[in-house]
Amino acid sequence: MTERGRAALARDATSWRVGRSSLAWDGAALTIAIDEIAVPLPRRVRGVVRVLPAALPASPFVLDPGRRHVWTPLAPHARVEVAMREPALLWSGHGYLDSNAGAEPLEDGFRFWTWSRATIGSGTGVLYDVERRDGSALSLALLFRPDGRIEEREAPPPARLPGTLWRVPRPTRADAGTDPRLVRTLEDAPFYARSDVASRLWGKEARGVHEALALDRFRQAWVKLLLPFRMPRRG
């Protein structure tokens, strides 16, 4: 998935650039400047997204026994301001920023994972379930407070959302006796789905984003052959 060559990349302590797009941190907000050409149908995508964290807990979570994969919720509770010129979009709302780092490809460490982030009252709830390549599993259920405090919660019982057109399953979790509701599918790819979901978690209404990543599917050669049609490739 190498989309850019070395000459297109630059970074320092407070900024990072790839091609014409960049990120810059000023100590209070992350400014994301986007200047791209969409694929497979070419069109300009330009604008600015600002992420303003309520707190920066920066607490890493190791996802595998070999410590090869680490997830860090950098700004789990934040405000996002979006000002796009092409296409013309302007809005603001709840936001979230995290990071995944690894010493090996994701598909070498995991078979499948789901992640969801939802606004729950004044906080942010995150559910993270991974199926490791060795057959073991990990489940995280976390509530992030606006002041940066992290509460580990009991994971709600398993629940299911409808599968995607590409037949990627969308398992999730919700309070016992309740059913999560698929509001709309935001991204439907052969190995990945992102969805707008409404559910009930820890006794409160929750609305947020759900992701499902099928890494056994991603490993298949026919799926990798499709990647150039969805993203730029280095020349």
What would your notes on this structure say?
This protein is about 5% helix and about 55% strand. The strands form 3 sheets. Strands 1, 2, 3, 4, 5, 6, 7 and 8 form an 8-stranded antiparallel beta sheet that branches. The protein has about 240 residues and is mostly beta strands.
Brief write-up:
The chain is mainly beta and 235 residues long. The chain contains three helices and 17 strands.
Average pLDDT, rounded to a whole number, is: 93
Percentage of residues in DSSP E strands = over 45%
What distance separates the N and C termini? 13 Å
Shape: globular
**Helical proportion, percent range:** under 10%
Using only C-alpha atoms, the radius of gyration works out to: 18 Å
**Main sheet summary:** 8 strands, antiparallel
SS elements, strand count: 17
Write the layout of secondary structure elements.
Blueprint (H helix, E strand, L loop, with lengths): L8 E3 L3 E4 L2 E5 L4 E8 L6 E10 L7 E2 L6 E18 L2 E14 L3 H4 E11 L2 E10 L4 E8 L5 E3 L5 E4 L8 E4 L7 E8 L3 E10 L2 E11 H4 L2 H4 L11
Antiparallel strand pairs: 1-2, 2-3, 3-4, 4-5, 5-7, 6-7, 7-8, 9-10, 9-17, 10-11, 11-12, 13-14, 15-16, 16-17
